[in-house]
Amino acid sequence: GGKQSIITNFFKKA
Amino acid sequence: MLELRLVQGSLLKKVLEAIKELVTDANFDCSATGFSLQAMDSSHVALVALLLRSEGFEHYRCDRNLSMGMNLGNVSKMLRCAGSDDIITIKADDGSDTVTFMFESPNQDKIADFEMKLMDIDSEHLGIPDAEYQAIVRMPSGEFARICKDLSSIGDTVIISVTKEGVKFSTAGDIGTANIVCRQNKTVDKPEEATVIEMQEPVSLTFALRYLNSFTKATPLSETVSISLSSDLPVVVEYKIADMGYVRYYLAPKIEE
Fold this sequence. Notes:
The complex is a heterodimer.
Chain A: E1 3-4, E2 12-13
Chain B: E1 2-6, H1 10-19, E2 25-30, E3 34-40, E4 46-53, E5 59-62, E6 66-71, H2 72-79, E7 87-92, E8 98-104, E9 111-117, E10 126-127, E11 135-140, H3 141-152, E12 157-162, E13 166-173, E14 176-183, E15 196-199, E16 203-208, H4 209-215, E17 224-229, E18 235-241, E19 245-251, E20 254-255
Antiparallel strand pairs in B: 1-5, 1-7, 2-3, 2-6, 3-4, 4-19, 7-8, 8-9, 11-15, 11-17, 12-13, 12-16, 13-14, 17-18, 18-19
Helix pairs in contact in B: 1-2, 3-4
């Protein structure tokens, strides 16, 4: 099923 | 001073049921805009964003921006004590380390208040940029929940593929494979039963079914769900809360190694 990426890789810390 | 009165208290009960499986502790933020929350699951794979706009409350008083840290399991325990027709009021004083949930029966013959301790939560707030999605699928929320549940008995991940013809949900596991295709179907009697696909270009992405199944806990909040997909972006699964706002779930895709 591939490698699970994490959400913080997509959204910047506000 | 904070005082939020929600006549349709059952909405708040449903909101908690929709997010408590994914998130353990979270800060509820209160401002003139509304009552909101943004939180990640413990593995930082998914993010939930809730907004209940101030206009949706019968009475909304929030003198200054306030962030209240709560254990969602404990909030859920408190709200389960409210009747499904009860009016719920959330109250907090400035600087207080507690929040009060007040439940009023519809004919005002029973009034209960439950005070809960707040907690300090160090949470990362993420900035979610506006994105153009390659495809947006709107479908009945019950149908989406059924598909996620059915496929998770076969496999752990789902490939969601959108073409002009429809949206395909595929999985594979030790016992075999499964494909479910939902065709675009706008010609139904009720708009909430339609499957509508807005597509700029075909897209195919892989997600962990465990998280999608958690998202479907929001099904009682809305008859429809929208799924926004773009390559290399988290999927957005949105349940609108009638006249008030939304619960949005963001889930990072699986990437081929």
